[in-house]
Specification:
Largest sheet: 3 strands, antiparallel
Distance between the termini: 34 Å
Helix content: 25-40%
Number of helices: 2
Order of helices and strands: EHEEEEH
Strand order of the largest sheet: 3-4-5
Radius of gyration: 14 Å
Structural class: alpha+beta
Strand content: 15-25%
Shape: elongated
Length: 94
């Protein structure tokens, strides 16, 4: 079972062994040619890098620390390993 961080009762699901996931938004700054990423799901996640690989590595380093802090008791639930996969969403005109 996959459960998103931030959904109702996500901490209970995490402690019960559910596989947790979170969304990350990656943007490119065209002026500096760098990438930066943030997440509404994982409070405190804000990283930057020169390449997408740099951003991915930074997320994989930071996410477990933030995840454990959000659980509030040091319990790692089903594990605090971050696996990052990228998908593209195209902007739509409103």
């Amino acid at each position: 079972m996959n459960y998103r961080i931030g959904w109702p009762a996500w901490k209970i699901a995490a402690r019960s062994g559910a596989r947790m996931y979170f969304r990350v938004y990656v943007r490119k700054d065209d002026q500096s040619s760098t990438y930066w990423a943030s997440s509404d799901d994982l409070d405190g996640l804000a990283v930057a890098g020169d390449t997408l690989d740099d951003v991915e590595r930074a997320i994989e380093e930071v996410a477990p620390v933030l995840y454990k802090a959000l659980l509030n008791d040091g319990s790692s639930g089903s594990g605090a390993r971050a696996k990052v996969s990228f998908s593209v969403s195209l902007p739509c005109a409103a």
